[in-house]
Specification:
The protein has about 550 residues and is α+β, with helices and mostly antiparallel strands. A hairpin with a 2-residue loop joins β4 and β5. It is elongated, with a radius of gyration of 28 Å. Helices cover about 60% and strands about 10% of the residues. It folds into 3 domains: about 375 residues, no CATH class; about 60 residues, 2-Layer Sandwich (Alpha-Beta Plaits), CATH 3.30.70; about 70 residues, 2-Layer Sandwich (Alpha-Beta Plaits).
C-alpha cells in the first residue's frame, strides 16, 4: 500500500483516471433501481483514493476540464434555450426559475442557521439540488476570496464533502417526489392523467417494452379490380379518399409501362399502383380492398432518410397535423422528433419548435425539397471547429471576469465558469441559425461533457479525501438534515406554484420539476409510473434554465456566505 500511495502521488494524472474508473463502476451499481451515476461515483472514487494517498491536484487541469464541460452543456441546450422562453414553454420556464430561486434561498438560510463555511454551503447547494457543476463555480468563487491559501484549500475540500453527504438524498428525493409524493399531494393518478394528455395531443399508446418488427412506413403494390371505386378517379381524388391516413400513389404500371403519377392522372381498372403510407394503414385499409402484387420493378425507387434542423420561422408553433396538410409534404413522413436531445412523442397535436430535429423519410426529390422548407439537413459533423470553441471560451471567460452585479453591499463577478456556459449557449443557439457555424460532432460534445465533469469531480474528490472524515465530524448530522430541507422545499413550492398559479397539466408539471433540478432520472421515474413518455414535454423547456441558474448559484452562495 505504501508503494501504491507513493506511485499515485508521483503520477497524479493516473490517480485521476483510476478515480474515474472507480466512479463509473460505483455509479453503475443500482439498489432498488437507484444508482449514483458516474459523476457522483467519480466524486466518491476520488474521496476513496484520497483516504490513503494525498494526491496533488492541478488547479489549472481542474479548471480546463470544467470549462470544457460548461461549454459542452451550453452548446447542447443552446438550440432550445431561447425557444423555451416563448409560447407554451413559458410555464415550465417560470416553474424552473421559481424552483431554482427557492432552492438558493433555502440553501442560504440553512447554511446560515447551521453556521456553515462557504465550502460546506456550496456543497450543500450542489448536492441537495443535484447540480454538480455548481461545485466548479463555487470553487472558482472561493479561489477569488481574499483569504489565506490554507483556508481556500480547506473550503474547496469542504465543497466535495458536503456534496457527497447531500447528493444521495438529493437524487432520491427528486425521483420519489416527482413520481410518488407529488402525485399524492395533488391527488392524481399518473396513468389516468397521462392518458388524458395523450388523448389531447392525439398520441396512440403502444405496449410498454414492445416494438414492431415492421418498418413504420412502407410502399406496397395493389392491382385495381374492375369494380373498384377508385377506377376512373384521378390520383388527387383517390388520395383524398382517406386524408387522415396520408396514403400516396407514387407510380403505376399500365400494361408493360411504368408511369410516374401526377395529381390529374386518371387510374383505370387493371392498373397496378404503388402506394406509400404507414404499414398498419396499408394492411388495414388497402389490404381488404385490393389485390396485393409483388412488383419489384414498380416498387424499386430511391427512398431518402434525413435529419433536418427546423430553422424556418413559419413552421414554429405549427402542429404536426397542420404541416402534414401542406402540399409540399405529399409523400413525406415524419419518423421521429427530438428536442433538446430528448425524443418527443409523435402525435398530430404536438407543436413544432425552432431547434427541433425532424427525421423525415420519402422519395429523394421529395425529401430534398421538403428539407429546404423545414430548415437545414443535419449531416454528421466529422471535425470540431476549434477556432470557434477556443475563441468562445476565451471571450465567455473574459466577459465573466468583467461583468459584475450587486448583491447587497457587494459586487459579484459573473465568473469565468458562468461566462463559458453562456458562451456555449450562444454558439449552440447560433448554429440553429447558421448550421455550418461552430460545428462540433455529437460524440465530441458527449466526451467534453462526460469526461470534463467526471474528471473535475474526481479531482475534487481526491483533494477532499484526506480531510473527508474530519470534515464530516465538523459538519455533523445537521448537514444531512439541512440537505433534506434544501431538496424538498423547492419541490413543494414548485409543485403548488405550478399547479395553482401556472395551472400546468400535472404530468407536464412533474416533468418540469425534474427538469428544474436537471434530474433526468426524475423524469424517467414519472414516465415509468405513468406508462407514458409525455412528461418530456415539460422537462425539455425547464432543464436548460435549471442548468444555467443552478450552476450560477455556486458563485452566489459562496459570496453571500463569505
Amino acid at each position: 500500500m505504501v508503494w501504491v500511495e507513493q506511485f499515485l502521488i508521483k503520477y497524479p494524472e493516473l490517480a485521476v483516471f483510476l478515480a474515474i474508473a472507480f466512479g463509473y463502476f460505483i455509479g453503475a451499481v443500482k439498489l432498488g433501481g437507484f444508482g449514483l451515476g458516474p459523476v457522483t461515483g467519480s466524486l466518491f472514487g476520488g474521496i476513496l483514493i484520497g483516504q490513503f494517498a494525498h494526491v496533488p491536484v492541478s488547479a489549472m487541469a481542474k479548471s480546463f476540464l470544467f470549462l470544457l464541460f460548461l461549454f459542452g452543456i451550453g452548446y447542447s441546450v443552446g438550440p432550445q434555450f431561447l425557444q423555451a422562453l416563448r409560447r407554451d414553454g413559458i410555464k415550465p420556464v417560470l416553474l424552473a426559475v421559481v424552483v431554482c430561486v427557492t432552492g438558493l434561498l433555502t440553501a442560504i438560510a440553512v447554511a446560515k442557521i447551521l453556521g456553515l463555511d462557504p465550502g460546506f454551503a456550496a456543497g450543500l447547494l450542489s448536492g441537495s439540488l443535484t447540480e454538480s457543476p455548481a461545485m466548479g463555480t463555487a470553487t472558482e468563487a472561493i479561489n477569488a476570496l481574499p483569504l489565506p491559501n490554507a483556508d481556500r484549500a480547506r473550503f474547496i475540500a469542504h465543497i466535495a464533502v458536503a456534496d457527497a453527504v447531500c447528493y444521495v438524498f438529493g437524487a432520491v428525493g427528486v425521483i420519489l417526489f416527482c413520481s410518488v409524493a407529488g402525485p399524492r399531494l395533488l391527488g392524481i393518478n399518473l396513468v389516468e392523467e397521462a392518458l388524458k394528455l395523450e388523448k389531447e395531443y392525439g398520441i396512440i399508446r403502444t405496449v410498454t417494452g414492445s416494438t414492431s418488427a415492421w418498418r413504420r412506413f412502407d410502399r406496397r403494390a395493389y392491382r385495381i379490380p374492375e369494380n373498384a371505386p377508385i377506377a376512373g378517379m384521378s390520383i388527387a381524388d383517390a388520395e383524398a379518399t382517406f386524408p387522415q391516413h396520408r396514403l400516396f400513389i407514387q407510380r403505376l404500371r399500365r400494361g408493360c409501362e411504368i408511369l410516374e403519377t401526377t395529381p390529374e392522372m386518371v387510374m383505370c381498372a387493371g392498373d397496378i399502383i404503388a402506394v406509400s403510407g404507414a404499414r398498419e394503414v396499408l394492411v388495414a385499409i388497402l389490404g381488404a380492398r385490393g389485390e396485393e402484387v409483388d412488383d419489384r420493378e414498380l416498387l424499386d425507387t430511391p427512398v431518402a432518410i434525413a435529419d433536418v434542423l427546423l430553422t424556418i420561422r413559419e413552421l414554429n408553433g405549427k402542429r404536426i397535423e397542420d404541416v402534414a396538410r401542406e402540399n409540399w409534404t405529399r409523400s413525406l413522413y415524419l419518423r421521429s422528433l427530438s428536442r433538446g436531445g430528448q425524443d418527443i412523442p409523435l402525435a398530430p397535436g404536438i407543436s413544432l419548435e425552432v431547434g427541433d430535429i425532424l427525421q423525415v423519410v420519402g422519395p429523394d426529390t421529395v425529401v430534398s425539397a421538403a428539407a429546404k422548407r423545414i430548415g437545414v439537413v443535419v449531416a454528421p459533423a466529422t471535425t470540431t471547429d476549434f477556432f470557434v470553441l477556443g475563441l468562445a471560451i476565451f471571450l465567455g471567460g473574459l466577459a465573466g471576469v468583467l461583468v459584475t452585479f450587486p448583491v447587497g453591499d457587494m459586487r459579484i463577478s459573473l465568473s469565468i465558469g458562468v461566462g463559458t456556459l453562456l458562451a456555449g449557449l450562444l454558439v449552440g443557439h447560433l448554429r440553429t441559425r447558421f448550421p455550418l457555424f461552430g460545428r462540433i460532432p455529437d460524440a465530441a460534445v458527449s466526451l467534453m461533457t462526460a469526461l470534463g465533469l467526471s474528471a473535475f469531480v474526481a479531482m475534487t474528490g481526491l483533494h477532499a479525501g484526506p480531510v473527508f472524515v474530519s470534515a464530516i465530524t465538523d459538519a455533523g448530522i445537521g448537514l444531512l438534515f439541512g440537505g433534506i430541507i434544501v431538496t424538498i422545499t423547492p419541490m413543494i413550492v414548485g409543485l403548488y406554484f405550478g399547479y395553482y398559479v401556472l395551472r400546468m397539466n400535472p404530468i407536464l408539471l412533474l416533468g418540469g420539476l425534474a427538469g428544474a433540478q436537471t434530474m433526468t432520472a426524475g423524469m424517467a421515474a414519472v414516465q415509468d409510473r405513468s406508462g407514458s413518455t409525455i412528461a418530456v414535454l415539460g422537462y425539455t423547456p425547464a432543464v436548460p434554465i435549471g442548468h444555467i441558474l443552478l450552476t450560477t448559484w455556486g458563485t452566489v452562495i459562496v459570496n453571500v456566505i463569505a
